[in-house]
Write a structure and sequence with these properties.
Layout: E1 2-7, H1 12-22, E2 27-30, E3 40-46, E4 61-64, H2 70-73, E5 83-84, H3 89-107, H4 110-118, E6 135-139, H5 143-154, E7 158-163, E8 173-176, H6 177-186, E9 190-193, H7 207-211, E10 223-226, H8 235-244, E11 249-252, E12 272-274, H9 284-299
Helix pairs in contact: 1-9, 3-5
The structure holds NADPH dihydro-nicotinamide-adenine-dinucleotide phosphate and oxalic acid.
NADPH dihydro-nicotinamide-adenine-dinucleotide phosphate is lined by residues 66-68, 95, 140-145, 163-165, 194-196, 198, 200-201, 227-229, 253-254, 277, 279-280, 314.
Length: 314
């Protein structure tokens, strides 16, 4: 019985070493050195090649190195075995750091003050709204969205959330589904997207959606923060909205194409903060511990945690 680590983007040896340290009895292999394919029961993967997972005939569980699973679900020959995504308090905490940092950055007009600093200009923007004047909307009230929404609430923001199914969360105004979308957007000054990429969410952050954000808020215009997935956003629409003033600023951690091509105007747009898909990177030690724990549950006949619903796509 063996586990195979498959990753082109994250260093697979680092994960393999971590797994071996935690469980010396586990036969850990690193793709392409799979040995006998019949031995492989578990796969720990990040962006596996299309069709590769189907070549392990005895595979029992696929583990995603990240919280998102679109990189696995895009496999057109995905074997019919449970897919377990990564859920971890440290990952959640770091996403919340990213969200709070970027909400505060735009709310406190940091891009403007950096411009003024470069010009050595001592100038104050006349009104400084408090957090309690600013309406933040979090799209996706899952593990990450809920924690970020709660911490934003503690900072004093007026927080609402939007998800597929209706939620009831203390201190957060919850909207859901198609009917809840317009009212949610209409009361949102800073939109935080933590949606997964699924067939339903592809291209969701488009011109029509951006035009529905509040235009009567305390900031010069609405702000978009996306740390969910790049394919949820339409970059041409975001740029057009920024240039027309419909959108005041954006922080983008994820992109339609990654790495973001050097030719993208997003790199040098004065109202855009670009980060290289690092809002919350999976910690390899935490991933290894999580996988070992899940395998132990499986081998004890207990149910796996955080199994992806293949129909919903997340
Ligand atoms: P969850 O699965 O816990 O939450 C997903 C949320 O999105 C749920 O609230 C779900 O609604 C909602 N949702 C999904 N589809 C729709 C839809 N069509 N309409 C409305 N709401 C929808 O995921 P996590 O919170 O753990 O992670 C979210 C995403 O963050 C990941 O999928 C990944 O893409 C991204 N991510 C990015 C990282 C980065 O560094 N940039 C790091 C880690 C993750 P409901 O509650 O009703 O099911
Ligand atoms: C993830 C990511 O899905 O890092 O965990 O994007």
């Amino acid at each position: 019985m063996a586990l195979i680590v498959i990753s082109r983007a994250m260093d697979p040896d680092c994960f393999a070493d971590g797994l071996r340290q935690l469980d010396g009895g586990l036969d850990v292999r690193v793709w392409p050195d799979a040995g006998n394919m019949d031995d492989i029961r578990y796969a720990l993967v990040w962006k596996p090649k299309d069709g590769l997972l189907a070549s392990f005939p005895k595979l029992e569980i696929i583990f995603s190195m990240g919280a998102g699973v679109d990189h696995v679900l895009s496999d057109t020959q995905l074997p019919d075995v449970p897919l377990v995504r990564f859920v971890d308090p440290n990952l959640t905490m770091r996403m919340t750091e990213y969200v709070c940092l970027n909400v505060l950055l735009h709310h406190r007009r940091t891009l403007d003050y950096l411009d003024l600093q470069r010009e050595k200009t001592w100038q104050n923007w006349s009104q400084q709204p408090g957090a309690n004047d600013v309406r933040v909307g979090v799209m996706g009230l899952g593990v990450l969205g809920l924690d970020a929404a709660d911490k934003l609430r503690l900072l004093g923001y007026q927080v609402a959330g939007w998800s597929r199914s209706q939620k009831d969360v203390d201190g957060i105004t919850c909207f859901s589904g198609a009917d809840g979308l317009k009212p949610f957007l209409a009361r949102t000054d800073i939109l935080v997207c933590l949606l997964p990429h699924t067939p339903d969410t592809g291209g969701f952050l488009n011109a029509e959606l951006l035009a529905s954000l509040a235009q009567d808020g305390p900031l010069p215009g609405p702000v978009l923060i996306n740390a969910g997935r790049g394919r949820v956003q339409v970059e041409a629409d975001i740029l057009a909205a920024l240039d027309s003033g419909m959108l005041w600023a954006a922080s983008l951690d994820v992109f339609e194409k990654e790495p973001l091509p050097a030719t993208s105007p997003l790199w040098s747009h004065p109202r855009v903060v670009v980060t290289p898909h690092n809002a919350s990177i999976s910690d390899d030690r935490a991933v290894c511990k999580y996988v070992i724990d899940q395998i132990a549950r499986h081998e004890d006949g207990k149910s796996l945690q955080n199994v992806v619903d293949l129909k919903r796509g997340y």
